[in-house]
Amino acid sequence: MRRINILGVWVHDCDEEVAVDAIKHFLENASLPPTTAKQLCTVNPEFVMEARQNRAFRALLNTADLCTPDGVGIILAARLMGTPLRGRATGVALVGRIAELSAVEGHRLFLLGAQPGVAEQAAKELARRYPGVNIVGTYPGSPADTDFPEIERRLAASQPNVLLVAYGAPRQDLWIRAHRSDFPSSVKVAMGIGGVLDYLAGRVPLAPPIMRRLGLEWLFRLIKQPWRWRRILRVFRFGFLAVHAYIARRIGARARPHS
């Protein structure tokens, strides 16, 4: 799959349907000899800005098995750089599609992270939306090394195929990379999902559909959670850097002699 460089982070050129096809392919290999779980990341402008300062996170994103474009800022930046992407594949949407796959094909899901009780409530909501979804475990835990033995025990007992981790970026993604070789061989896909469990549990409201279509989730979050202003500021810095890269590209193109 083609990848696009967004300010130093390589993002796969996939929309939701292409991403789901890739996830299906990973899961269909469940009967093959044990392999390390495939790691999925949903890249938004905050990811890119964090990766510019965090070398380990940047290396992780640039070697992940699938990095989907999550956030209209990524889409707009790709256009400015002359390498447009097919579309978006957000974490919220992919969790829903994975639950739908589970309901149809029986894949076993484990929800890890968030505050106590949130994953359980999110599991109930997924069961309501996707009757037959096969959620085999929920557990808050934490990324701390001291918590891993209990997480490992629960994963071994439940043998999930998909592990959805809600510790927030970049901790969740770095945690997956550090431990994925220790997961049971049943785990074929591990994905950081940030605040998706909070959305599903009703703890945090999801932006209205019209705002999601327009890519204004950041504005909705700022209105509902004004204390997030520092994180929103990173989005504006991302936009500035993307425009700067666009201008530099145009100047460079004009400076090159024509053959």
In short:
Helix content is about 50%, strand content about 15%.
Report what the structure shows.
- The protein is of the alpha/beta class and 259 residues long.
- It has one domain.
- The protein is 50% helix and 15% strand.
- The protein is built from 12 helices and 8 strands.
- The protein has helices at 16-28, 45-53, 55-61, 72-80, 91-105, 118-129, 148-158, 171-179, 196-200, 209-213, 217-224, 229-255; strands spanning 3-6, 9-12, 38-43, 66-69, 108-113, 134-139, 162-166, 189-192.
- It has a 6-stranded parallel sheet, with helices on both faces. Strands 1-2 form a two-stranded antiparallel sheet.
- Strand 7 (162-166), helix 8 (171-179) and strand 8 (189-192) form a beta-alpha-beta unit.
- The longest helix is centred in the C-terminal third of the chain and has 27 residues, at 229-255.
- It is globular and about 65 Å long.
- The mean pLDDT is 90.
